[in-house]
Amino acid sequence: MANIFVKGQKLAATALGLLRKQVKAPGLFTYKFGIADFKGAEGDTVMVKRPAVLVAREKPWRGDDAIVVDRIANSKIAVVLNRHIYSAVALSPEEETLDEIEYVRDVQAPQVQAVLDFIENIIVGVLRAASFVFGVTFNPASAAAVENDARKVAIRARKLAQKAHWPLTGRYWLVGADVSEAIATHDKLLEVDASGLPEALREGVVGKLGGWIIVELDALGDTESFFVHETAIAIANVAPAVPNGVAKGGGVAAGNGLAVTQLWDYDSDLLKDRSVVHAFAGATPVLDPEQDPATGAIVRDENDAVVLKFQRAIKVTFGAGGAEKATYTLTITGAPTGGTFTVTVDGQTTDAIAYNASNATIAAEINELTGVSGAVVSGGAFPANVKTLTLNERVVVSATGSFTGGSTPAIAVA
User: Fold this and answer.
1) Do 409 and 339 touch, CB atoms closer than 8 A?
2) d(CA 247, CA 275)
3) CA 196 to chain centre
C-alpha cells in the first residue's frame, strides 16, 4: 500500500503542527543506562549496587553487656535491556520523484517521534504495574478535607516522602487531564520557574503545590496520578549498531536523553527505499531496602534476603476509589482455641498466622507481601479483642480463618 503525501498544491514552508502527545517521562527520570553500561553485560542486565545501610547502637554506660554485631546489608537493582522498538517506512520511486517530500520533516522526524512515544509508554507502564508501598486519595467530592483539598493531599504525600527519606529536590506530582483540572483552580497553586527543569517538562508544568512540582503527562490516563522522585524509574536505552549491509545509517539524538539509530537501504525486489528507526530500551522501578520503623534496621525475609520495596513513588487514587481503604478492623468470633488465619491484601495472601498471634507477628506477615510496607497492627490480644490494621495506602483487605474449638469460629474484616 502506497504512502499518502500531499500533491497538487505548493506546501507552505512551515508545516501545520500535529495534534499528538508530548513525550515527557523519559526526560523526567534521571537514572539512565546506555551502551557503556550494557556492553558485555551478562543477560543484557546491569546490576546497580546500593550503598550499605547501617544503624548505630548504644552500649550501656559502664555496662558489661556484649555488643551487637550487625551485618552489612548489600542490595542491588537489576536494570534489563529487553525491548526492541522500531518504525519502518518504504518509499517508492514515484513518491520520491513526484511527491513533495522533505525527508527529515516527513519521514525521519515522525519515525523518531513514534519510537519515543513507545519508550514513554514502556516507562509509564512500569510505573502503573509497580507494587506501591505508599498511597493517598484525592477525591474532590469527599466530605473530608484531607481527601478533597489538593494541597492537603500534597502535604500528606510529602509526609510519606519524608518517611522514605526522599531527597528534597527532584520531586514531582504527575497528573492526567482530569486530575490536572481538579488542581488547576486551587487558590494556593504557585507558579514555577521552569527554567531549571528538563526542557521536555516545561510545557507540561501546571504549578507548584505543597512542595511538589505538578506536571501533566499526556501518557497518563485522565484520572491517573502519581507522586514520584526523579530516581523512581531506571531507564535503559541503547542505539543499535549500524549493520555493515545497509547503504547508510547512524545515531540520531532523539531528545529526553535518549538515542536511536536510523538505517537507510534499498529493496531491489520492490524497487523501494526503506527508512528504519529503531532503539533498544527497558525500564524498571528502583526498589530500596525496607527498614524497621522502630529501629531503622534492614528487614530480611525468612531466607535472610534483604526485603526490597518500591518506596520512591506514591500512588494517587483519584475519586472515590471503590472498596479500597487504608484502615481496617479484624475481628475473630466464636472463641476458637486453636487454628490459623490468613490476610489477603490486593490479592496477595500471607502465610498462615496463629489464631492468637501478637500484633508484631501479624504485621510482620502482612509486611512481607509485595507492595506492602509499614503496616501497623494495634489492639488487644486475639482472639478476644478487635485489632486495627493501618496501611500506608488504600487497598482491599480480606481474611480467611481455619480455626479449631469454640463455637463456629470465623474472622471478619471491616
Assistant:
1) yes
2) 11
3) 23
For every residue of 310-358, DSSP letters joined together read: EEEEEEEEESS-TT-EEEEEEEEES--SEEEEEEEETTEEPPPEETT--
Number of domains in the chain: 2
297 and 327 assigned to the same domain = no
Q: What is the pLDDT of residues 232-263, one digit of tens each?
A: 999 999 999 998 888 788 887 777 788 899 99
Higher pLDDT, 302 or 202: 302
Residues 282 and 401 in one domain: no
* Residue 157 neighbours by CB under 8 Å, 6+ apart: 134, 136, 173, 210, 212, 227, 314, 316
Asked if residue 409 belongs to a domain, the reply is yes
Per residue in 103-115, pLDDT (tens digit) is 788 888 889 889 9
- In this structure, are 46 and 135 located in the same domain? yes
Q: Are residues 148 and 216 in the same domain?
A: yes
Q: What is the pLDDT of residues 392-401, one digit of tens each?
A: 877 889 999 9
- 167-172 contacts at long range (C-beta below 8 A, 24 or more positions apart): 167/229, 170/30, 170/229, 170/230, 170/231, 171/211, 171/212, 171/213, 171/227, 171/228, 171/229, 171/230, 172/28, 172/212, 172/213, 172/214, 172/215, 172/227, 172/228, 172/229, 172/230
Distance CA 260, CA 116 (A): 9
Residue found by looking up cell 528507526 in the block: 277
pLDDT given at position 192: 82
Q: Tell whether the model's pLDDT for residue 198 goes beyond 50.
A: yes
* CA–CA dist 255, 119 (Å, integer): 12
- pLDDT of 3 reads 59
One domain, residues 359 and 244: no
Residues in contact with 391: Cβ distance below 8 Å, sequence separation at least 6, in sequence order: 326, 327, 328, 345, 372, 374, 375, 397
Q: Which helix (H) or strand (E) holds 228?
A: strand 225-229
Q: Can you tell me the mean pLDDT for 208-233?
A: 94
**Rounded to the nearest 5°, which phi and psi values hold at 306?**
-65, 130
Model confidence over 31-67: pLDDT tens digits?
888 888 888 888 888 888 777 777 788 888 988 888 8
293 and 252 in a common domain: yes
Is residue 139 in a domain?
A: yes
Q: Going by C-beta distance under 8 Å and a sequence separation of 6 or more, which residues neighbour residue 239?
A: 35, 251, 252, 259, 260, 261, 279, 280
- In terms of residue numbers, what domain contains 348? 323-413
Q: What's the grid cell of residue 13? A: 514552508
